[in-house]
Design a protein that fits this description.
The protein has 141 residues and is of the alpha+beta class. It contains four helices and four strands.
């Protein structure tokens, strides 16, 4: 380990990111979490080209889903907060796939560990994923 102090930044924490931050903190590694405010979503729409436009007609689906557990949600309370393109490790017409943990061997950037495609399996696997991220981080500290 070189003398320069090294820490870890976790972007888009979620449950897996929080588990990773905990594992790193347990090893006395300074950790910075970058997470947005509470929100509903995301909504998934398959695309064939880059387009960050938010279709306002999709809001009705959000109201319907949210009102199953928050029936008093006032009409007009929701508005789009952001639009983004999330990488998937499967194609639209393929069966559900697993997630991908990508390190320097996949993108060539020392110290960067990407976690792609972590959806519902991430909740049950979050501590194991965190252990794997910690194992990979140790080579840099």
């Amino acid at each position: 380990m070189d003398s320069e102090k090294t820490g870890a930044g976790i972007i888009g924490a979620g449950v897996v990111g929080l588990a990773c931050a905990r594992r790193l903190a347990q090893q006395c590694i300074e950790t910075f979490l970058l997470e947005r405010h509470d929100d509903f979503g995301p909504d998934v729409e398959w695309i064939n080209h880059i387009d960050y436009h938010v279709d306002p007609d999709r809001v009705d689906g959000f109201y319907h889903s949210i009102r199953r557990w928050w029936p008093q949600l006032p009409q007009g309370a929701l508005s789009p907060a952001y639009s983004g393109i999330r990488p998937k490790v499967i194609n639209e017409d393929k069966p559900e796939g697993d997630f991908l943990i990508q390190g320097q061997e996949g993108h060539g950037i020392r110290g960067l560990i990407n976690l792609f495609g972590i959806e519902s399996p991430g909740l049950t696997a979050c501590l194991s994923i965190a252990d794997e991220v910690l194992r990979r981080c140790r080579q840099y500290w």
